[in-house]
Write the C-alpha cells for this entry.
Amino acid sequence: MKKRIAIFASGSGSNAQKVMEHFKRSADGEVALILTNNAESYVLQRADNFEIPAHVFDRHEFYETDDIIRLLKNLQIDLIVLAGFLWLVPESLLKAFPNKIINIHPALLPKYGGKGMYGDNVHKAILANKEEESGITIHFVNEHFDEGEIIHQSKFKIEPGDDLEMVKFKGQQLEHANFAKVIEQLLKKMKS
Ligand code: GAR
C-alpha cells in the first residue's frame, strides 16, 4: 500500500511541486492533499495541475478546532510535509501525528533557525555574517520552530561575490534535488 502524504505550504510551493512530481511515479507514496493558510498561494494552482485536492484554512481553524486533524485522519494521511509553511504547528496536531511531521529549512540548523527565520531573512543573515557555506536541513517538527531531530543536511559553498539571489538559488537547487528523495527514504522505513 502506498503511504499517503499531506503537504502544508504558504507560498510559491516550488518544493511541493517537486514532491508532487516525484510521487506521481513512486511505488512508495502518493500526495493525497495540499493544505495552505494562504488563499493566494501559487501552491493551489500547482495542486490543481496535479489534480490533487487542496484545503485552505485560517488561524481559527488551525489553532482552535480539530477540523484539520479530522481531515488528515479521514484521508488516512501517513506523513505530513511542511514545504515553506510558516506557522507553528499546534500541540494537538503534533500529538495526533507523532514523528510523522517533517519540515524543510533553508539553512544548516541549528544555525539560522527560529521564529522569523524563513525565506530571504535566512539568506540575508547568512550573507551579513559572511558565512563561507550554507545548506538545507530536513528535520522532524516539534513544538519549537526549527528544533526537531535532523533527518538530512546538505551543504553548498558561498563564493566571494555571491549575492542574495545566488545563495537563494543554490539553496533551492539543493532543496529540489533532495526533499522528495528524503521523504521516499522515510516512507520506506515506516511500518505499514
Ligand atoms: C523554502 O526555501 C523552504 O526551505 C523555506 O521556504 C521556502 C519555500 O519555498 N522554509 C522556511 O524558511 C521555513 N522556516 P517554496 O514555496 O518555493 O517551496
User: Anything to note?
Assistant: The longest strand covers residues 29-36.
